[in-house]
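ENTRY TYPE: protein
CONTENTS: sequence, structure tokens:
***
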Amino acid sequence: MEPSEQSRFDLLYQQHLNALRLQGKAHNTIDAYARAVRRLAAFFDCCPDQLEPAHLKDYFLSLVESHSWSVVKQDRHGLIFFYRYVLDKPCQWVDIVRPPNVRTLPDIMSVAEVARVINQTREPRYQSFILCVYSMGLRLGEALNLTISDIDSARQRVHIRCGKGRKDRFVFLPARTLDSLRRYWVSHRNPVLIFPRGKTGDLQHNASIPMCRGSVQQAIRIIVKGCGIHKRVSMHTLRHCYGTHLLEVGVDLRAIQLQMGHEWVLSS
């Protein structure tokens, strides 16, 4: 990109980030929408403000062929935001991009399979993390961001802060999970975080950020494969397993939804 072009792009990109923050977008949304603009600029090696609809259609055609529909959908939303709030231009061109409405059912592990995954996990940080996610039905980010002050051992509950939709909730804390969290925390004694980043106790003790999402997702795939379980499993799968297993033993659906932070929709 030419220096003058790069300077113009840097200015517009910063305006994009500022607009996202001013609208109170979640951190993951800001990352995704910012990545969409960077990817578009890199594809054409120029500042996107001069691109024509034909260029953008070519770009999305390439994106459909090289990335998943979830990436295409994220980039579509990110560029709509960029054109509307930064470039102040109409974006009718995105109407041609129509991600298919596909509903798939997640793979569900049995209780025995989940137990095998937990028991065969060798690294204490991952073993404690997997048990934490499954036993409380947490989202990946919710578990990663747990702090010491969130744990209410006396009342056997955990305060989940700023979950999906920026909503707080309380979840039940099983005794076995509390014991696991305590044993793991003693290994690093971080003053704030339950799952700090780092491979050694010293690094974890001084860390100010939680474990990396990517490393946790990679770990669960390796562990599941090592257990001989031939299902598509991610950390979010454990959340699905939690809800399914509670439903199978007769727990009220409304109670499960409250625990997992789902919206309750009344039927008419």
Summary: DSSP finds twelve helices and three strands in the chain. The two ends are 56 Å apart (CA to CA). The first helix runs from residue 3 to 22.
